[in-house]
Amino acid sequence: MLEPYADVIIDITHTAVDRVFQYEIPEELSEKVSLGMKIRVPFGQGNRLLDGYIIGFSAKPEYDPLKIKKIESICEDGVAIEGQLVRLAAWMRERYGSTMIQALKTVLPVKKKLKNLERRYLIRKISEEECRELLSFYRKKNQKARVRLLEAFLMDQTLPYEMVVQKLRVSAASVKPFLEQGICALETKNSFRNPFQGEKAEGGSVSLTEEQRLAVEGILSAWETDRRPCYLHGITGSGKTEVYMEVIRRVVAEGKQAIVLIPEISLTWQTVMRFYRQFGERVSIVHSRLSAGEKSDQMERARRGDLDIMIGPRSALFTPFSNLGLIVIDEEHETAYKSETVPKYHAIDTAIERCRLAGAMTILGSATPSATSYYRAQNGEYHFFQMKTRAKEASALPSVEIVDLREELKAGNRGIFSRRLAELMEEALKRKEQILLFLNRRGYAGFVSCRSCGKAVKCPHCDVSLKVHRDGTLKCHYCGHETPIPRICPSCGSSYIAGFGTGTQKVEAMVKELFPEAGVLRMDMDTTSKKGSHDAILSAFADGKADILIGTQMIVKGHDFPRVTLVGILAADLSLYSGGYEAGERTFSLLTQAAGRAGRDSLPGHVVIQSYSPDNYSVEAAASQDYEGFYWHEILYRKLLRYPPVYRMLSLLVTSKEEEEAERMAEVVKRQAESVNEEGALELVGPAKASVAKINDVYRYMFYAKCEEEGPLLELKRRIEALEWDRNVQYQFDME
Ligand code: ADP
Ligand code: ZN
Ligand code: ZN
After folding, report:
1. Does the pLDDT of residue 465 top 60, yes or no?
2. Is the confidence at residue 252, as pLDDT, over 80?
């Protein structure tokens, strides 16, 4: 390491990482220090020696070089988990573009001051017999406080310390000689708030199917041969979760820990309970509905070694396990694994890097692999395992039919349900079986547009259409701007202005009209805004309290309803027109997941996919559950248009309140990119206004660079970071 100064953080807590101190690296250490390393440094006026972590290096002193202190020594006590997380942060900073502080804040657990975290107990260390003898001794001496304490000890061997002091009014001074004489001991126990409170572990595991056994053995021996990540491609219901649990069992048996990532949306009590039944108190969860304190408790439990398994969404990736053995990423294709805030990391690559640093294995799994992951598996970056049959004996794959909505229109049916779907619904209701109706929310109505000029009512601050809310107002989902529904079109003045209804609510109304007897539940943003309502709706449906569940994306993930025999996908193609090169992939995976909800148990399942473009390859491949067919089509399209995963893409968002400034800087970036691109390895696109050109009165410009190799893009990124950026212009990278 040639730079003479190191940036050091002393206090490794989330809130303290802003305080970075510069230290000089002494000659004799300059070859030895590295990023993330734990070191000892003199600190404060008395030059007390404290532990710190190196988070960066610099060539220049930040103040008078004579006043900069020297690093004292390197701490040799193994690789601390903090050091590993610091190194991970450095990798994220480099790869995804952010400051070191932003990256550190992402990986380091938030430490909250916790109240009542620790409980102290007094524990009787002598026999009952001895206790009685002592009691009569102190009675004679008339020492009332000690008498009360000994009486209490006869009833209970363990007494909460607080109770002894407050209720028995025994002072610390009276307890002290007892402790010294070994009559009792003071112990500290953590009373962490466990989110599982009240549920009991039951144990019991299934015996694996042949396919599952092969996957488990394959994964474990692949890990023995080389340390590439493993990919598990298994159709919905093939029993991937059981495979994960078996591998986790082996990892835990070796004294290591495991992290299981699940998209928030499918983090249901059903999934969580399966893990809890297996691993009991040694498993915990984090999710966005926990308070900061609860989250922090769980991270602390992990750090102390009270847990073996952490389940949670993206951020659970940074659980501070000191001997991590495995990270599982289930439903790896989910977009939720990509962070929306800086650093815009992807959980998959970050997990692989964390595993590399920790010497742990990674398992990715899905029924519908993302094109990127599948491409990598094909190229040998991952070991690949497949499961093609459902795990439960009786459950076969559902039969799927596509209904052409254009034909319905021709036949005069303007309703939401095709004739075929309505017919199947009626039959299922007669047989007292359950129905799922899935509405692809992306792009679905909810806004108001003019029938005369065709324009939708837009937010004045953002370049998006306003959405109709239940209270009859229009709201902007980006900035919160609110306005009543206009009577006349703001663009042309026509009075022919109308809403398109709010999706799920409209479906509910239609169901009630067609099948007034049926019990209906609805699950969408409106009905699940309260804490716990999500689970309440799902358990009500699982308990058979309704015949039909209507919902958006939320209902298709990870649920197992044995009595559902019919799944209706109302408008399959809406997500096809949501824009972006991933639209086809998203549509395919949503349809496949939705279809996979039918016939999970012994009853045969039916799926009806209603579509305006029934011959689209995503829709067709989903109907025939043909992943490979879809994949080859998709990858060809990506190749032709030079999209990821075939090409790497660096996108840059330039924003400013001043439109000209944003535009000017975007142009500067472009010229910089052109100078990097002398050999023509990069394909440059833009700059152009972003698809949402303005949010909250801030203007947005996009610039893209594509390349088969990552190197030139990282170089370009470094050059862009080194440009002179004005204070009123911001930028954000995204590397795909
Ligand atoms: P996936 O995650 O691949 O969709 P799951 O792990 O959720 O599949 O399993 C689907 C269903 O099959 C669950 O109800 C699960 O309990 C059951 N199952 C999984 N493996 C077995 C097995 N080996 N024997 C019996 N039932 C199983
Ligand atoms: Zn108009
Ligand atoms: Zn707005």
Report:
1. yes
2. yes
Share of the chain above pLDDT 90, in %: 25
Question: Do the beta carbons of residue 366 and residue 241 sit within 8 Å?
Answer: no
Q: Report CA(621)–ligand 1 centroid distance (Å).
A: 24
Q: Is the CB of 551 under 6 A from ligand 1?
A: no
Find out whether the beta carbon of 236 lies less than 6 Å from any atom of ligand 1: yes
Q: What is the pLDDT of residue 478?
A: 67
Confidence of residue 100 (pLDDT cuts 50, 70, 90): confident
Residue with the two structure tokens 């990892």 = 251
User: Could you tell me how many residues make up the chain?
Assistant: 736
Q: Which residue has the tokens 């190191």?
A: 6
Tokens 């009787």 belong to residue? 124
The 3-class SS string of 431-478 reads CCCEEEEECCCCCCCCEEEECCCCCECECCCCCCECEECCCCEEECCC
* Cβ of 239 below 6 Å from ligand 1: yes
Q: How far is the CA of 435 from the centre of ligand 1 (A)?
A: 21
Kindly give the distance from the C-alpha atom of residue 432 to the centroid of ligand 1, in angstroms, as a whole number: 24
Q: Which ranges in 38-114 belong to alpha helices (H)?
A: 81-92, 100-107
Q: How far is the CA of 538 from the centre of ligand 3 (A)?
A: 33
CA proximity to 398, closest of 151, 565, 263: 565
CA 390 to ligand 1 centroid distance, Å: 7
Cβ proximity of 35 and 41 under 8 Å: no
Task: Please name which of 643, 653, 645 lies closest in space to residue 734, comparing C-alpha atoms.
Answer: 653
Give the N- to C-terminal CA distance of the chain in Å, as an integer: 30
What b-and-e string marks burial along 290-324, b requiring 16 or more CB atoms within 10 Å of the CB?
A: beeebbbbbbbbbbeeebbbbbbbbbbbbbbbbeb
Mean pLDDT of the chain: 83
pLDDT, tens digit (0-9, with 9 covering 90-100), for 586-595: 888 888 888 8
pLDDT bin (cut points 50, 70, 90) of residue 425 is: very high
Does ligand 1 come within 6 angstroms of the Cβ of 330? no
Question: Higher pLDDT residue, 305 or 160?
Answer: 305
The tokens describing 396, both together, are 């076969």
DSSP state of 485: P
For residue 452, how far is its CA from the centre of ligand 2 (angstroms)? 5
Coil, helix or strand at residue 639:
helix
Q: What is the DSSP letter of 330?
A: T
Report the range out of 13-17, 180-184, 495-499, 612-616 with the highest average pLDDT.
Answer: 180-184
Q: Is 209 in the pocket of ligand 1 (CB under 6 A)?
A: yes
Element housing 701 (H / E): strand 698-707
Q: Is the CB of 592 inside a 6 Å radius of any atom of ligand 1?
A: no
447: number of Cβ within 10 Å: 17
Residue in 206, 269, 330, 602 to alter for ligand 1 test, most ligand atoms within 8 A of Cβ: 206
pLDDT for residue 540 is more than 80: yes
The CA-based dihedral angle spanning residues 517, 523, 524, 525, taken in that order and rounded to the nearest 10 degrees: 120
- Packing angle, helices 533-542 and 269-279, rounded to 10: 80
Q: Is 560 in the pocket of ligand 1 (CB under 6 A)?
A: yes
Name the closest ligand to CA 467: 3
Residues 6+ apart with CB under 8 A from 167: none
CB of 199 closer than 6 angstroms to any ligand 1 atom: no
How high is the pLDDT of residue 77?
63
Alpha-carbon span 132 to 707, nearest angstrom: 83
At 13 the pLDDT is: 63
pLDDT in tens, 196-247: 544 444 445 678 999 999 999 999 999 888 889 999 999 888 999 999 999 9
